[in-house]
Amino acid sequence: MADLKTRPTAESVSAFIDKIADRTRKEDCQAVIEIMKDVTNEDPEMWGPSIVGFGRYRYKYPGGREAEWMITGFSPRKGDLTLYIMQGFESSPELMKRLGKHKTGKSCLYIKKLADVDLEVLRELVEKSVKEMAAGRSQE
Q1: Is 3.90.1150.200 the CATH number for 13-134?
Q2: Cβ contacts of residue 9 below 8 Å, gap of 6+?
Q3: Which stretches of the chain score pLDDT less than 50?
Q4: Do residues 40 and 84 touch, judged by C-beta distance below 8 A?
């Protein structure tokens, strides 16, 4: 089985954020960095060329292969600011209702801009996921 292509790198998070041309997207990224850094007590690091991650955990696939991934993170994609909430959203329906304008995938939260969501609810989602990850209830 192939190794994961997305891995931590030595690239600068600040340099990556500085390259973002859209001022609102850049400010949103800086705000998300502050939230995730505060919640995880971890410094941000680049994962591949376009993901900012916080913390690390190891997980095992059903077939026995192990891999390392970030506990939480985000990527300023072209259309959306994508946040990686590793625990997903099924256990947080009340928070999701209060969050504001967003879309979701299995562990991805897609937001056009932070002004569209309640930042306190967003922080609660990140905190809940990080706590669940720390308790070892990660998704596999």
Answers
A1: yes
A2: 45, 46, 47, 48, 49
A3: 1-2, 137-140
A4: no
CA angle 123, 127, 133 (to 5 degrees): 145
What amino acid occupies position 138? S
The predicted pLDDT at position 92 comes to 92
Cβ–Cβ contacts within 10 Å for residue 121, how many? 17
Q: Among 11, 8, 29, 7, which Cα is nearest to 81's?
A: 29
Position 130, amino acid: V
Hey, where are the domains in the chain? Answer: 13-134
Spatial contact of 54 and 42, defined as CB atoms under 8 Å apart: yes
Report the alpha-carbon distance of residue 65 to residue 109 in Å, rounded. Answer: 26
